[in-house]
Fold this sequence. Notes:
2 domains; disordered N terminus
Amino acid sequence: MRSTPLPLVALAATGLLLTSCAGSTAAGSSGDAETVELTTPAGVDIEIPAEPQSALGFYTTDLDILITLGFELADTQPIRDDFTSFPAFFPQEELEGLETFGNFPEFNLEAVLEADPDFILNGLGYEENLDGKLQKIAPTYTYNAFDGGDWRDVVAQAASDLGREDQWQAWVDQYEERVADIKARLDAADIHPVVADVGYFDGQVTTSCYGVPCLVFADLGLEMHVLMNATDEGLPASEDYTELSAEQVGQLEGVDVVFTGADEDGTVWIEDDAALQQNQLWQNLSFVQDGAYFPYNYEMIYGSPSGMDAFLTVVEKALLG
Length: 321
């Protein structure tokens, strides 16, 4: 997941805008409020309000994490350029009345500045030079939420750094309680399918152990198809996707239940391609013949509390009804 750089002219204009406005924005944000000093995973020392009143999540997962950790939100928040609103599985009550602007894959730093945040949470730590630009707008906690590991590890560290351990633990406790309940019901019903997360892109069927689906499968003790390249911990054995051409899709034989990404508008990728629907090898797969594939909003895979809860619900309904 990489961003598309802004045109050089736009970047230059943004730099001038941030340089001229950053001082007054930062001063106005903190005021006389109590502050907390900390060092971010990016190695930057920052000073943030002890109780931010206008926090901004730079990516959609960051916004969900801010809500989970109990932060007061800025009145304007970013969404993906290919979305028209916040993901439907996010907590809608906390998002009611907020304005939005597109901010991925291209970054809209002018709109971030206009949102007037007093704190920014930025999980795109893999983006070089982004942290420095955001620090000119407001104190920013930058971390890498997309390093291929379990997103919960880096968010747990962020919660600790930001003094929100109790809020984080509350989410962990309710999630683990749900997992235990679903596992018990699966065992009681002797439901133990082989599962896979399957997508379709650029003429090829794909599967991998990237993101939330793999973690949820592992948490529930479900057997994942070998092509997902999962470790025993439910993490990817490699960063690569398994890509299957039209002649190779039969290698998915043995998968009982598939979970598959869908666009915000509900378009299911593996249903949308005419060539795949005419591929006899694909049509002969048992999960295709049985209709045992279950769509989910692809934004769930990127790792946030609401995404994890929502995907767990998708699996629960698929396997238990």
